[in-house]
């Protein structure tokens, strides 16, 4: 927003800012109560093996079913949840809800599919019980580096879900904020049998050396590279290079945001392992997943 230095333009600019901050406060207060009021939802988006067309997993994506504004996407409230620390209890709710859903699907006879949960930086530096460190930078010790590991183990234990059914998606920026803490946490989670995905790969401006040092299973190519792979030579080159590099490091590759047959074919030809995107399915409420799996299994025994 450009501030206009004079006249009505400036007035409007000021008013806008005031609206923005009071709007923010309202949002923050209602987000605080969203958990108690049971307004959060998880949608699930399939991950599809490119070569076989089989669904190989699901990603849990958070939504806020706001009573007035309707379904709010995570980009509009997760940043605020991170700033305020609310992402810590919300993140635990996400883990528990995803695990309960895995159990429910097992009971309904759905083929066993791992579910991936997105983690935020704040969960990696979750203060220990006292919470007195709020607002101050946390040292590794004060941050209680194993709180996230304990939380995940507790939720798995309480819900009776096997760690191999839970996948964790983290961004490069989480790693960069505190590499040694993140490395310890990931080692512990990986040792329990959870697979770790690097989300939004290619947008983090980070060193690549972590790829060989950390227990990473898969990288997810950010959808900003995938969107134009069939029209933009540079994006095509970047995606092909990421796939080749990942494979030579014995990592698997998922492409995000695949919307067209042409993108699908490009990725298949370059040896990408799996895809996620509207081309196969949008994120769906849990109850629509089993019908989707049934209909695609019955209707298409092999795409052409
Ligand atoms: P993400 O983890 O990279 O998730 C992928 C996003 O791309 C999702 O947006 C998904 O709906 C969208 N997407 C999938 N296929 C396509 C496609 O073909 N085209 C396009 N244009 N978009 C596609 P969504 O659900 O709005 O989530 C946005 C981001 O919010 C996520 O990005 C993730 O960073 C964050 N997020 C979502 N759920 C959680 C959560 O439970 N905890 C945390 N900390 N962050 C979350
Ligand atoms: Mg993700
Ligand atoms: Mg992503
Ligand atoms: Mg993202």
Lateral strand order in the biggest sheet: 1-2-4-5-6-7-8-9
* Assembly category: single chain
Percentage of residues in strands:
15-25%
Largest sheet: 8 strands, mixed, barrel
Q: Roughly what is the average pLDDT, rounded to an integer? A: 87
Give the bound compounds.
ligand C2E, magnesium ion
Helix content: 40-55%
Spans where pLDDT lies below 50 across 5 or more residues: 1-7, 128-136, 139-145, 300-304
Distance between the termini: 48 Å
Number of helices: 12
Rg, alpha carbons: 21 Å
What would you call the shape? globular
* Helix-and-strand structural type: alpha/beta
Secondary-structure element series: HEEEHHEHHEHHEHEHHEHEEH
* Number of E-type strands: 10
Structural notes for this entry:
This is Diguanylate cyclase DosC. The protein is of the alpha/beta class and about 300 residues long. It contains twelve helices and ten strands. Strands 1-2-4-5-6-7-8-9 form an eight-stranded mixed β-barrel, surrounded by four helices. Helix 3 packs parallel to helix 5. It is globular, with a radius of gyration of 21 Å.
Pick out its properties.
304 residues, alpha/beta, eight-stranded mixed β-barrel, 12 helices, 45% helix, globular, disordered C terminus, binds ligand C2E, binds magnesium ion, Diguanylate cyclase DosC
In short:
Residues 24-297 form the EAL domain. This is Diguanylate cyclase DosC. This protein is an alpha/beta fold and 304 residues long.
Topology:
Blueprint: H1 7-34, E1 40-49, E2 55-66, E3 70-72, H2 78-84, H3 87-107, E4 115-118, H4 121-124, H5 147-159, E5 166-171, H6 172-177, H7 179-191, E6 195-201, H8 210-213, E7 218-221, H9 223-226, H10 233-248, E8 252-255, H11 261-269, E9 274-275, E10 284-285, H12 289-299
Parallel strand pairs: 2-4, 4-5, 5-6, 6-7, 7-8, 8-9
Antiparallel strand pairs: 1-2, 1-9, 1-10, 2-3
Bound molecules: ligand C2E and magnesium ion (MG) (3 copies).
One magnesium ion binds near residues 199, 200, 222 and 256.
Protein name: Diguanylate cyclase DosC
């Amino acid at each position: 927003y450009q501030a206009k230095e004079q006249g009505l333009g400036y007035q409007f600019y000021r008013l806008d800012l005031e609206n923005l901050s009071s709007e923010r406060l309202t949002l923050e207060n209602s987000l605080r109560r969203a958990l108690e009021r049971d307004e959060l939802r998880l949608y699930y988006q399939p991950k599809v093996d490119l070569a076989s067309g089989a669904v190989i997993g699901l990603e849990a994506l958070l939504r806020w079913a706001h009573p007035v504004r309707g379904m709010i996407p995570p980009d509009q409230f997760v940043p605020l949840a991170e700033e305020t620390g609310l992402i810590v209890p919300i993140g635990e709710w996400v883990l528990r809800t995803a695990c309960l859903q895995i159990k429910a699907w097992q009971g309904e006879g759905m083929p066993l599919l791992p579910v991936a949960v997105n983690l935020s930086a704040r969960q990696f530096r979750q203060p220990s019980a006292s919470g007195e460190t709020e607002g101050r930078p946390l040292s590794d010790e004060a941050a209680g580096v194993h709180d996230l590991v304990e939380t995940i183990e507790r939720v798995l234990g309480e819900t009776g879900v096997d760690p191999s059914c839970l996948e964790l998606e983290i961004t490069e920026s989480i790693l960069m904020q505190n590499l040694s803490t993140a490395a310890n946490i990931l080692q512990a989670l990986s040792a329990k049998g959870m697979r770790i995905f690097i989300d939004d790969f290619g947008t983090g401006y980070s060193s690549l050396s972590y790829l060989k040092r950390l227990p990473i299973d898969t990288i997810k190519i950010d959808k900003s590279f995938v969107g134009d792979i069939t029209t933009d030579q540079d994006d095509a080159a970047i995606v092909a290079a990421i796939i080749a590099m990942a494979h030579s490091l014995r990592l698997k590759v998922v492409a995000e945001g695949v919307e067209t047959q042409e993108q699908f074919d490009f990725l298949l030809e370059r040896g990408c392992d799996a895809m996620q995107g509207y081309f196969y399915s949008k994120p769906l409420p849990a109850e629509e997943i089993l019908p989707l799996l049934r209909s695609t299994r019955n209707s298409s025994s092999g795409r052409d």
